[in-house]
Write a structure and sequence with these properties.
single chain; alpha/beta; Rossmann fold; Heat Shock Protein 90; five-stranded mixed sheet; about 50% helix; disordered N terminus; disordered C terminus
Length: about 425
């Protein structure tokens, strides 16, 4: 193989690895003289040997690549490197005596970051290599930070989904309130530091952008028109402006996601707050909104929510228990829809009653099953989808509030549950559900 490895013990140790590809020993000597004391270098004298050494596992931080070489020119080598996922992000600087704009444009279009004309000026080579390595470091660090934050958000979302899945099985959990409170607390902590990290990331990106701007200004202040032009062309090729703008948008969207998680955690805390026998004056619209937020992960892939809320007076009730009723009915409605459907949630006052209706256009319930839906342990679901206690518990909770719950359904058209609650409850049974 036509490749030369420079032993790291013979030069100053460096964290950067460079691959020099040139069939001219004179050019290689020049590059080695100006870079050898700073970087860990490896040399290949043609395109085939350069690709071979990379295929063996050597992944350089930057490639200095001659264009005019026998058998395989630098354009072909660049094309192959950019088409390989493992090497696509390696910065490539072309070296060539070809000085036309067309030749330079071709190299940059293939993915190179820069173009240095031969004979090489050691000072220019050294400075450009340093600049592109710094830019690569900034990009790598930013990519890693974004990837880490994305993974953290993904894990937070998985945790949140797990909470939702657990709540959908709430009839199996005798202590659902305590469980939900604990989970909400656990989610609140990672969501807090993810939000803090995103704020830090936003500041770091701002500083990095300022640093890039200063570096550009320094390069332009040198007064070399060719260098300034190449810099602008590099920024256009790498879509620098788009990346800088898109990073800000990504961070803003991620922060918005954290705010949504925080809102759901607040709803979980409200839902799971311990209740005593004291009635609370409650706005049922807020109670319904909170229940929709908690059940949303189960609903969003199956149905669109339509709200028909009218102003109603507050009622004396146990809001967490009514929230349990609403969540159960909303989840059942979503599960009754096979593909995509609509769930209509309405709220209105009729005489001395506040009436809540939850209607879906799902598969419906047969007349035979409709007579038994509120019976304990009766269910038409599979064994791992319910115990048959959910609607029975809903029935008991509504009755404890001196209200009534009823159901109407047509097979193939959908189901509507109606809950009537008195505006002024006289008393609640001492025994709570």
């Amino acid at each position: 193989m036509d490749v030369c490895v420079l032993n790291k013990s013979s030069i100053d140790s460096s964290e950067y690895q460079l691959l020099l590809v040139d069939d001219s020993s004179l050019n290689l000597d020049t590059l080695l003289a100006c870079l050898g004391d700073t970087y860990d270098l490896r040399v290949a004298i043609n395109g085939e040997s350069a690709l071979a050494v990379i295929a063996e596992g050597y992944i350089p931080d930057l490639v200095l690549l001659d264009i005019m070489m026998p058998d395989m020119d630098g354009y072909e080598v660049c094309l192959r490197l950019k088409s390989n996922e493992k090497t696509a992000d390696i910065p490539i600087i072309f070296l060539s005596a070809l000085g036309s704009d067309t030749d330079q444009a071709k190299g940059l279009e293939l993915g190179a970051v820069d173009y240095i004309s031969k004979p090489c000026n050691p000072a220019i080579v050294s400075r450009r290599v340093q600049t592109h390595l710094e830019l690569k470091d900034h990009k790598d660090r930013l990519r890693k930070m974004v990837r880490n934050k994305t993974l953290e958000l993904t894990e937070a979302y998985k945790d949140l989904k797990l909470v939702h899945d657990q709540m959908l099985q709430q009839e199996k959990m005798a202590s659902i309130g305590q469980l939900a409170a604990g989970v909400a607390h656990e989610i609140n902590n990672p969501a807090g530091f993810i939000g803090s990290n995103l704020n830090s990331l936003q500041k770091y990106v701002g500083k990095m952008n300022k640093g890039i701007t200063v570096m550009e200004q320094l390069i332009e202040s040198v007064g070399q028109a060719d260098l300034t032009k190449q810099l602008k062309e590099m920024k256009r090729t790498l879509k620098f402006h788009f990346i800088q703008e898109d990073i800000d948008d990504l961070i803003v969207e991620s922060k918005d996601g954290i705010e949504r998680i925080a809102a759901i955690v607040r709803n979980l805390k409200n839902f799971s707050r311990s209740e005593d026998d004291t009635l609370v004056e409650t706005d049922l619209q807020k109670c319904l909104e909170g229940s929709l937020n908690i059940a949303w992960n189960e609903i969003k892939y199956k149905a669109k929510i339509e709200k028909d809320f009218h102003k109603t007076p507050p009622i004396l009730c146990l809001p967490q228990q009514l929230g349990q009723v609403f969540i159960n009915l909303l989840v059942n409605a979503a599960q009754a829809i096979e593909d995509q459907g609509v769930i209509i949630v309405s709220l209105e006052q009729i005489n001395e009653w506040v009436v809540v209706k939850i209607k879906d256009n799902g598969s419906g319930i047969s007349e035979e099953n409709l007579q038994r839906v509120f019976d304990a342990f009766y269910t038409t679901k599979k064994a791992d989808h319910g115990t048959g206690l959910g609607l029975s518990i809903c029935h008991d909770i509504v009755q404890k509030h001196e209200g009534a719950i009823s159901v109407e359904s047509t097979v193939g058209e959908g189901t509507c549950f109606t809950i009537k609650l008195p505006i002024s409850a006289k008393s609640l049974d001492a025994e709570r559900v």
